[in-house]
Amino acid sequence: LPLRALIDEHCGGMRDGLRVKAVIPGGSSVPPLPASLLDTGLDYESMNAAGTFLGSGGVIVIDDRSCVVDALWNITRFYEHESCGKCTPCREGTYWMSEVFERLESGHGREKDIDLLWDVSDNIMGKSFCALGDAAAMPVMGAIQHFREEFEYHVRHGRCMVNRRNPARLEQRREPPREVAAAMETNT
Asked: According to the UniProt entry, which residue ranges have a biased composition of type Basic and acidic residues (predicted)?
């Protein structure tokens, strides 16, 4: 079964005429695939050949009105929050990846930030105590590999290609919604 059939036939297709831009086929911890690879089979061998994995099996579809850079920043912030802090590659790496994504999304990105994201991710891969470090690094590396032009657009224009948001929306770090922050407080 190819990804396209899963989306179109088994999940009802895209809403309101939207098109697929990217698919993260195995949950947030695997490299995303561009729409050009929607005919990739949903099996281990095909996913591996395409440079990704089935992972947890949770399929995330990113539509053509969404910003891949913003989506990956949200994923990176999740892993930064989930890092236990025990090992340096994961603790420092996820922090720095979040900082670079914030710079890109706030309109202050530099060309060298794209390579910095790649280098930080590469320095996390295989060097953390648990799989969380790899889970944080792999989607970032895959996004840069397949969607580098979106990262470059952020640098050149100081905003997202899809122009859904105000480019100056991030004067300071985003805070979670009040109910999420309260839940986080009680769980720490």
From this structure: 168-178
